[in-house]
Amino acid sequence: MSAAALDADAPRVPPGYLLTTFEYDVDDPIVWPEHVHDEHELLWSAGGMARLEAEGRVWAIPPALAVWVPSRVAHQASAERGARVRATYFLGGGPHTEAMPGIVTGVAMTEPLRVLLDHNLQGTLDEAARRRLQRVILDLLVPAPRESFELVMPRSPHLHMVASAILADPGDKRTTADWAYECGLHGRTLARQFEAETGMSFTQWRILARLQLAIRELTHGRSIVSVARRVGYRNPSTFIGHFRSLTGQTPAEYVRGSRADRPTSD
């Protein structure tokens, strides 16, 4: 399906089924404007990087992760050139999704979940087999908010300005004191306000912003050392440590897994 062919109002799940997946292969960078729909949604990537904004948060979506969006929650999505974005929609209401939270949250994109979602795209399944498959998919949905690359955006205009600038260039070398000076604040005041509005320290927030960009750069085939420098690390070992603490993998392991997920050509 064309990446631009997104109808926010039309029902997607066919009658008699629990879910359906739409494929959006992105030729050029794209933004899907803010919208809502009656179905729940699982936004995931079969390759490349997508991003979702909802409820004052920004979520990076590499192939190892997905984001659950409950029905009627306003959200905006975007994707980079070459991304293979997948949106799985789930029938709203009923007991089949009641185990999932009523807020936007991360979901671990495990190999069994990915394989079954891909299998559900096949047109050769009979109706009974497809319904059984979809019930198993629902059982495999596991919220994993700590693994979801979630960035809470601060509400105050001056802090929002700082956060937006860091997202635009996570490798920016300005210190907390530098940013505080630009806002007309003491460094401790900026740090205290930032943590109060985002739930994490200014330093932790910057690390996560850096790792969002790092994921994208790594999937483009750039070296670990060049990516570390691009996102503001002088010492690649520090970058590797931060990356492993968030994803459970080293950058090299992540890249190998990402390449294994790509389709091969005959």
Automatic annotation (TrEMBL):
MF terms (GO), sorted A to Z: DNA-binding transcription factor activity; sequence-specific DNA binding
Organism superkingdom: Bacteria
SMART domains, alphabetized: HTH_ARAC
Entry keyword annotation includes DNA-binding: yes
Keyword annotations: DNA-binding, Transcription, Transcription regulation
Pfam families: AraC_binding (PF02311), HTH_18 (PF12833)
Stretches assigned to the HTH araC/xylS-type domain: 160-257
Protein name per UniProt: AraC-like DNA-binding protein
Gene source species: Microbacterium saperdae
